[in-house]
Each structure stands twice: as C-alpha cells, then as structure tokens.
Design goal:
- By secondary structure, the chain is mainly alpha-helical.
- The chain is built from 15 helices and 4 strands.
- It has one domain.
- It has helices at residues 5-33, 55-69, 74-96, 100-116, 137-157, 164-182, 184-187, 190-210, 219-233, 240-253, 255-270, 283-289, 294-316, 320-338, 353-374; strands at residues 36-37, 50-51, 123-125, 132-134.
- A hairpin with a 6-residue loop joins strand 3 (123-125) and strand 4 (132-134).
- Mean pLDDT is 84; it is low at 343-352.
C-alpha cells in the first residue's frame, strides 16, 4: 500500500471526525457510569462537576482507522492491544479512583506483554564511537518497560489544564508522523506515520470540546492511552535504524512533559512525598499562578512544544546545530514565562456580577415558592 500525503491527510480527517462525533456521546454517558470529576481540592482548575470520559472518543478516533488500514501489521496490532488495555485501566480509574500502586503494576504488566509481543528497544547510537550499541536481553527488557511506562504517565501528569494534554499530544504525534514519513522509505516507518496521524486526528477531534472552557475532560482513560500510543509507536518500525529515530524524536518533542515529570519526581522525593501523589507545582500551575489564565498558559505551552517538535525534525535530519538553536529558544521562552514578576504582585479577587445576579434571582424565586406553599406574605421588592 502506497502512503501519500493525501492519504495521510484523509486519515487525519477521518480520525478527527470519529472523535468529534463520539465526544458528545461520551458527555452524556459519563454521569451514568460515574465518570465525573468533582473539584474537591485546590489542585483542580475547574469549579463544577465535569464529565471525564473523553478517552472513549480518543480511543475510537485512533483505533478505528488503525484497525481498518493497519490490521495486517503485527506490531501495530500489538500496540493497539496494549493501548486498549491501558484505556480500560484508565476507565476503571476514572470511575473508582484506583490506588496509584495498582495502576503502576498494571502498566508494568502491559509493558511486559508488549515486550513479549515484539515491541522492544534493542539498540541505541554509540555516541562514544562508531556504529550502534546493542542491548543484551535483560537491558533490552528493562529499557523497553521503563520507556513504555514512563512515557505513558508523562501525558497523564501534564493533563491539568483544559486542552493541554490533547494539544501537546497532537503536536507531538504530527511531528513524529512527519519524521516517520520523510524517513519512511529508508527505515520502513510509514506504518508509524499512519498510526501517529490517527492519534493526532483523534486528539484534534476531541480538542474543540476540551479547550477552555472545556465541556468534558479526557480523564485518565484518555491521557494514559495517548501516552502509551506515543511510547509504543516508537518501537513499531520494522528496521533497526528506525528505532533510533523514533525514540529520539519523541524525547525531544515531548521535552516539556518529560521535563515536568522529571522534576515532579525529584520534587516529591525531596519533600518525602509519594512519587505518584498529585500536587500543584507543575509548569502549568506556575503559569496560572503568574496570572496568565488557562487559555494563554496552554497556548504558550503549545508554542514551546511546536518549537521542540521542529527541533526533533532537524535532529532526525542530522542538523544538530540548528536543532540546538531551536531548543535553546524554547528553553529561553520557558524561563521567561516561569519567572514572570507578576506572580509576586498582590491578587485582587474579582466578582462575577452576572453570576451573582443570577444567584440572587434564584434565591428570590425559591423564597416566593416557599411563601406560596406556607401562605406567608411575599416580601416587598
């Protein structure tokens, strides 16, 4: 099957359309199964109950195109199986809030299954000499499991603002798809390009419902699934060299989530807190604290991720100096955003006058109804 730019564009639109159609169904289904996010702590950015079953739309948008067009590829089907299992884990967590240790053990089990089904990281570039460094059986197993579990949770940890995880995943997936496409004929990665375009399309179709102000969250089912698909697609390519390109590119394009995850782990170890415990110290929380607001904070992180994505493309073409310049620009902007002096200024809590008026009208209406039922005189206006 010949893979063309037109075919990839159609695949993207097809996946986005499926996701866009399924999302309203997920919104209606979420309360019925108990997949609702209740803002019961100060870490959450929303103030009212929200359905968190958007993972269903993302799963459908990704899997239907993959099953239709890539069902003959064994490794792609292995990735699809692993993604489905991780999605089901996320659904259970969205409904019953599973213990972090239980989720971690299940993720390791899925990663082991993927290793047994042939998704493996066997070698890396030898940066201290020529050729490649081949992993032994034990090291290959350990590296593969750490990679799959680590990247899976990376997207989950940055899913803290409306549209952030979906947008970052779409940008990362498109960059990986582009790299896989331009190197496809040499390294046999066209199948990776098609898979990543499907994931990107699914994220894009969900984004209109998830961007601020969101009407639905993707939940752990969506964020864990997206993270796993990004990780597993990296080791689908059939040729040895393709593994090097596919693993290096996600590391660069996912620079912000990986950076955020790494420092979250260091921070929690330093504070003697559980590694899997949520907190309010992520990059996006700092941007909100600086007064940027959800929409601007998300757009800032989109822009930095896009710059890192272009740096990843340059690395795949061995244009390392150009890539370093772009990565430096991204780091510079991130520093500017996170060190904005406005976060030190005093805050003024604004009052939503319209909301207050609506609340007062509802209060008066209830009083009138109560007075009619009890026969009491209505208060004068």
């Amino acid at each position: 099957m010949e893979v063309t730019k037109t075919m990839l564009a159609i695949l993207f639109v097809f996946a986005a359309a499926i996701s866009m159609i399924v999302t309203p169904l997920a919104i209606r289904l979420a309360p019925r199964i108990g997949a609702v996010d209740i803002p019961n702590d100060d870490r959450r950015m929303h103030t009212h109950e929200m359905p968190r079953f958007g993972g269903l739309a993302i799963l459908a948008g990704s899997m239907i195109p993959i099953l239709i067009f890539l069902h003959s590829n064994d490794k792609m089907m292995a990735a699809a199986l692993g993604g489905t299992l991780i999605y089901l884990l996320g659904v259970l967590d969205d409904i019953w809030s599973l213990d972090a240790k239980v989720k971690f053990v299940f993720e390791i089990a899925v990663a082991v299954l993927m290793y047994m089904m042939g998704l493996r990281i066997r070698l890396i570039n030898n940066y201290f000499g020529t050729g490649m460094v081949r992993f032994g059986t034990i090291l290959c197993f350990v590296v593969t499991v750490i990679w799959l579990v680590g990247i899976t949770n990376t997207i989950n940890l940055v899913d803290g603002l409306d549209g952030l995880a979906a947008g970052l995943t779409m940008i990362a997936s498109l960059c990986i798809a582009y790299v896989a496409y331009i190197h496809g004929n040499v390294y046999g990665m066209l199948v990776v390009s098609m898979g990543m375009v499907s994931v990107a399309g699914a994220a894009m179709g969900f984004l209109p419902y998830n961007f601020y102000p969101a009407s639905i969250f993707m939940g752990d089912s969506g964020s864990l699934f997206l993270g796993f698909m990004l990780a597993s697609m990296s080791v689908v390519g059939p040729l040895k060299r393709s593994t090097i390109i596919a693993v290096a590119v996600p590391v660069i394009v996912l620079g912000i989530p990986i950076f955020d995850t790494f420092f979250a782990i260091v921070r929690r170890i330093h504070n003697r807190r559980p590694i899997m415990e949520a907190d309010k110290e992520h990059i996006h929380h700092h941007l909100i604290a600086s007064g940027y607001g959800q929409r601007r904070a998300v757009l800032m992180l989109y822009g930095i991720s896009a710059i890192m994505g272009m740096a990843a493309v340059l690395v795949s073409r061995e244009l390392y100096k150009d890539a370093v310049v772009l990565a430096g620009i991204a780091v510079l902007y991130l520093y500017v955003f996170l060190t904005d002096p406005n976060h030190k200024l005093p805050r003024v809590n604004a009052v939503d006058i319209h909301r207050e008026e609506e609340h007062e009208k509802r209060q008066n209406k209830r009083k009138k109804q109560t007075n009619k039922q009890t026969g009491a005189a209505e208060p004068e206006e």
